[in-house]
Structures are given as structure tokens and as C-alpha cells.
Amino acid sequence: MLSMLLCGWNEGSTGPLIPRLQEYYNINYLIMSLVYLTMFVGAMTGGLSNIWITDRIGFGLICPLGALSQSIAYMLMGTGGPYGLFLVAFVFNGFGLAVQDAQVNNLTTRLPHAHTKMSFVQACFGLGGMVSPFISTPFAAHVKEVYRYYFVAMGIGLIAMVIMLLAFDRRTEEQLVGKLDIAAIEGKKKEEPAVELEKHDAIQAGTVGEAGHAAEAVVAAADTPADPPVKVTSGEKMKRMLTTPTVYALMAWAFVYIGVEVAISGWLTTYLVRERGANANAGFAVTGFWGGMTVGRIVLIPFTNKVGYQFSIYFYSLVAIALEFVIWYTKSVVGNAVCFAFVGFFMGPVYPVALIKLSEILDDDIRGGVMGMMGSMGGAGAAAVPLITGAISDRFGIWTLQPIGVSMIGAYILLWMMVPRHKIGGKK
Fold first, then answer.
1. Residue 345 covered by a domain
2. How far apart are CA 376 and CA 253, in angstroms?
3. Same domain for 208 and 159?
4. Which of 131, 160, 182, 384 sits at a 20 to 30 Å CA gap from 216?
5. Are residues 76 and 196 located together in one domain of the fold?
6. 54 neighbors 162 (Cβ within 8 angstroms)
């Protein structure tokens, strides 16, 4: 949860700072959007190297590594150096976000009551995005050297890194999840006396025929040691993923969903300032967006369980589109801010629900890797879609945020239609 809180903190803090950073560096929308391009590079690097790094250092070290990478990024940003240095810092930022998102999501799907836990984990992401504007917005409104905010973020990143190191104690994911298998082992032990009793009863009854042989066969099977697990290499895992068509639909879906989520969060302050005449305090609307996302991921759990995963994804997304149209065609600052909060509320549950659905349709041997690639492609989308939004806004105006939001939400609905409803074929 702490790892996702840090990731959300990053996403929620950027938007309120953008107008002031544009003034400090004297740059337009397009040049400002290059931060998302370099973050894209970092996210893709994290995605492509995620499996390789995990196989070598394990879950217990890769998550703290992600937090350290973000802290390095914040240190570079906080110096207020040349814009080129600011861009390089976002490479480290994107890498840290991608590896943490992938690792945490995969681990959570392997826990009991995964849907509820995933909703709370993703709510922590939203909580980070909700809280961070309370820090970044005052910097944007009252501090001349607005970039100094990133030293605050660096401190939070380092604290998170230390806590994760102590909590995970360098353990791998298998070691962490293995503790949860004790109940299953105990259940197996309870079955063994029943097998012995069945054999005894068969012998006492003189049934040395089928019953006796069957009982002996059961005992023999129970006593036979299981074959040792086959070690699957990183290359074999990657090949397995790349030959599964559904994986590409899931990666594309994550790219668009997280991309539009971050684009709305990143540009909504600028939208309210430039299009609706709000002041710098409009940055608090980002808190509303992420707050809505946090609350939605928890409050809507019962509704999601009642109507099912597939229907809930479509329903929540269509409501979000309707709210985007309301923002597009109304001029009230307060009304727009409230609607942005409800967009977050209904978009929020979509991602954790999709991850749980993913755990149902993919084989265990590739699920973790796919989760990592989805997280990385989501990080890439978080970089690319805001970049495209900034480029379009530079050419046509920031009002285009709304048609972009509507089209992107519609796009991820179509992509989700390509994901199978039932478990795909077994291992090849």
C-alpha cells in the first residue's frame, strides 16, 4: 500500500505545478509535455527489465529500488537546474513508477480475497494523488522557487524506501505468498487419517478386491513425492507472454486507461485556469479527482460484486464519459471541479476490477509477467497520452482536454471488448 501511495503522490502533484513550471522555464504546452515523453522512456525501461531484475534480486528489493529511483528523480528536479536535467529526472521517475506498480499488483492478485485487497491497494494510489496537491498547490501559489517542492517529495520517497526494506526483508514474492499456503497444507494433513481409515475398513471387511486396491492406490499416491518444480527461465516466460494474443489487448487497454487518467489529472488545473478563469487554487481540484478515485474504489466494491466485473467496467466508463460531456458544455468552475471529482469516482474501480479479471483468465505461469507489462504499458500511457494532450492543446487550445478524454475512455471500452470473458487456453 505504501508503494502505491508513493506512485499516486507523484501523479497527483504534477498537475498543480505545471502552470508555474511553464512560467519558470518559459516554455509552452508542447515543450512542457516532454516530461511525459522522458517518463515514457523510463516506464518502458522498467517494463522490459522488470522480469529480469525480479528474477535476480526478488520482490523485496525491486520495490525499494523503484522508490529509490523516484527519490533520485525528485532530487534532480528540486535543484531547479536546466530543463534538460528536469527531463532526465523523469526517466528515473518513470522507471520507479513502472516497477512498483507491476510488482504490487501481481502480489495482490495472489492474496486471499484478492478483489477487496486490490481495491484497497489501488485506493492507496488514489489517496496519494488526493493528498499531494495539498502540498504542491501551496508551493504553486505562494513559493517563488516552485521546483523546491520536489525536495519534499524526495523525503517521502526515501522514507517509503526504508520502510519497504524493513518490511520485506529482501524476501521474494514466493516467500511472501508462501506463508499464506499453510492453511492448505494443514487441510491436506487432515485428509491423510481419512485415507488410512478407508484402507483399514476395506481390509476388515475382507474386500481385498477393488476397494482394497483402490485404498492402497490412494495411499501410494499420497506417499509418492511430487515432481520437483521445473525452473522456468526469464526468456521462456517472455516467449510465453509474447505468443498469447490476449496479452496485447490487455497492454493496449492499460496504456489507454492509465494514460487518460493521468492526462485528466495532469491538465485539469490548467484547463480550469485557462478555460474557466480559475486561480492557482484550482490545483485543489486535482485532490477532488483523486479523492473521488479513492472513494470509488472502496465504496463501489459491493455494487461491483453484485453486477459482475464485466458489466461494472462498461457501466462506470460510460458514466465517466457522460460527466466529461457535462464539463465540456458547462462553464462553472465549481461545477467543473465537482464533475472532475465524480469522473475520478467512476473511473477509479475500473483498473482494480480489470486486474482481478486478468487473474481469472490467464495461466499462473505468465500472469505475473503480464501484470508487469501492463504496469509498464500503463506507465508508458501515463507519459504518452498527456504528451499528446499537451501537443494538441498547444496547437488548438486546452479546451481539447474534454474531447480527448471522451475519445480515450471510449477507446479503452472498445479495447476491453477484445479481452476474453473466460480463461484462455492452457500452456502451449
1. yes
2. 12
3. no
4. 182
5. no
6. no
Please work out, in degrees rounded to the nearest 5, the angle formed at the alpha carbon of residue 371 by the alpha carbons of 370 and 374: 85
**Same structural domain for residues 11 and 149?**
yes
pLDDT in tens, 38-94: 888 888 888 778 778 887 888 788 889 999 999 999 999 999 999 999 999 999 998
The 3-class secondary structure across the chain, one letter per residue, is: CHHHHHHHHHHHHHHHHHHHHHHHHCCCHHHHCHHHHHHHHHHHHHHHHHHHHHHHHCHHHHHHHHHHHHHHHHHHHHCCCCHHHHHHHHHHHHHHHHHHHHHHHHHHHCCCCHHHHHHHHHHHHHHHHHHCHHHHHHHHHHCCCHHHHHHHHHHHHHHHHHHHHHHHCCCCHHHHHHHHHHHHHHHHHHHHHHHHHHHHHHHHCCCCCHHHHHHHHHHHHHHCCCCCCCCCCHHHHHHHHHCCHHHHHHHHHHHHHHHHHHHHHHHHHHHHHHHHCCCHHHHHHHHHHHHHHHHHHHHCHHHHHHHCHHHHHHHHHHHHHHHHHHHHHCCCHHHHHHHHHHHHHHHCCHHHHHHHHHHHHCCHHHHHHHHHHHHHHHHHHHHHHHHHHHHHHHHHCHHHHHHHHHHHHHHHHHHHCCCCCCCCCCCC
Distances (CA, A) of 236 to 107, 206, 258, 326, 375: 21, 53, 28, 49, 20
> Is residue 257 predicted with pLDDT exceeding 90?
yes
pLDDT tier, 232 (very low <50, low <70, confident <90, very high otherwise): low
Statement to judge: residues 169 and 34 lie in one domain: yes
**Residue/partner pairs of 222-231 with CB below 8 Å, 24 or more apart:** 222/192, 222/195
Shared domain for 63 and 204, answered yes or no, is no
Give the integer Cα–Cα distance in Å for 296 and 261.
14
For the entire predicted model, the pTM comes to: 0.71
Alpha-carbon span 90 to 159, nearest angstrom:
20
